[in-house]
Amino acid sequence: MAPISRLAVVAMLASAAFVNAAPILAPMASDAAAPALTKTDSLAAAPGSWNSELSKRGVVGTIDRCTTVGTVALTFDDGPSNYTNELLDILARKKVKATFFINGQNGNSIMAHKAVIERMHKDGHQIASHTWSHQDLATLSVTKMTEEMTKLDNAVKEIIGVRPMFMRPPYGSTNPGVLSLLKKLGYTIVLWDQDTNDWRHPKEVDISFKVYEKALGEANAINQPGHIFLQHDIHEYTVTKLAGMAIDYALEKGFKVVTVGECLGVANTKWYRK
Ligand SMILES: [Zn+2]
User: Fold this and answer.
1) CA 48, CA 13: separation in Å to the nearest integer?
2) Where are the beta strands (DSSP E) in the chain?
3) What spacing in Å lies between the alpha carbon of 76 and ligand 1's midpoint?
4) Which domains does the chain have, with CATH numbers?
5) Within 13 Å, how many C-alpha atoms sit on residue 194's CB side?
6) CA angle, residues 53, 56, 57, in degrees to nearest 5
7) 77 catalytic, yes or no?
8) HEC string for 27-44
9) Ligand 1 centroid to 91 CA: how many Å?
10) What is the pLDDT of residue 62?
11) Which listed residue (64, 77, 136, 198) is catalytic?
């Protein structure tokens, strides 16, 4: 029997993803597998099929990869935590930007980390919503869902004066109702194409780092649409070890390490609203 080419497998997986629009839920309280994307809901269903102008660079829709070749977006979810300030030190030292999908109340209280959020903003990182209390949006009523978004937005506005327009659903979990409401509310939904799974093995940084090596190490990787990497700044070694290793590796391979907004070509004036 002829071997199935890698391309054929990718195509099969992609078509299976379109058929199965139901989100795959993570079993634990962290972000795991991204949900399957539907053709209508994804601007980035497959590499090479990017929406030509990403809705004139305001996006609003679902994305899971960067559109700018040679860019890499490091994303950190579930914080801020007591480790986040150290992460900001590392990012400053290495002169790169990242994106933070923050919660209001998820183990840590947002108001206990006001200074760190102010610094994130001042340092030029992108602050995005990960909802108020990290609930699975697909299980909530429209009222509850709206509350999860506006409560976090209002807290962020209190701290930095503006409300985020980019968001990531907890667990990457959505359904057609969630997607339609989020779009109606004006959010760009950011998933990921590279999952470090750091929450599964928070101390085994090498396993997470291999995800970077695999995605960025291939000879032609730099000529492809960039990758969005998922990890969590609530894990000590993700901050103190993985972040620095990942940034050094990406830079060494010639990538630009930027925010999600920048890797999509969205001007920073469109990352937030009043
Ligand atoms: Zn999360």
Assistant:
1) 16
2) 62-63, 71-77, 99-102, 105-106, 108-109, 126-129, 163-164, 166-167, 188-190, 194-195, 227-232, 256-258, 272-273
3) 9
4) 40-273 (3.20.20.370)
5) 24
6) 90
7) yes
8) CCCCCCCCCCCCCCCECC
9) 21
10) 84
11) 77
Ramachandran class of 48: left when φ > 0, alpha when ψ lies in -120 to 50, beta otherwise: left
> 86 C-alpha vs ligand 1 centroid, how far in Å?
20
Q: What is the pLDDT of residue 266?
A: 92
State the catalytic residue, choosing from 134, 232, 233, 235: 232
What is residue 56's predicted lDDT score, i.e. its pLDDT?
61
pLDDT number for residue 61: 81
104 touches 132 (CB < 8 A) = yes
- Show Cβ contacts of residue 104 under 8 Å, excluding neighbours closer than 6 positions: 110, 131, 132, 133, 151, 152, 155
Give the distance (Å) from ligand 1 centre to CA of residue 84. 15
Residues of the chain with pLDDT under 50: 1-50
| DSSP label of 191 | -
Instruction: Give backbone dihedrals phi and psi of 164, rounded to 5 degrees, phi first.
Output: -70, 145
Our answer to whether residue 136 is catalytic in this structure is no
Q: What pLDDT, on the 0 to 100 scale, is given for residue 127?
A: 98
pLDDT score for 67: 87
Instruction: Report CA Rg, the chain.
Output: 18
The per-residue pLDDT for 220 is: 87
Instruction: Give the tokens for residue 97.
Output: 């930007």
Distance 141 CA to ligand 1 centre (A): 19
Q: What CA–CA distance (Å, rounded) separates 4 from 17?
A: 19
At which residue do the structure tokens 């139901």 appear?
22
Identify the residue whose tokens are 């108020």: 132
| DSSP codes of every residue in 226-241 | PEEEEEETTSHHIIII
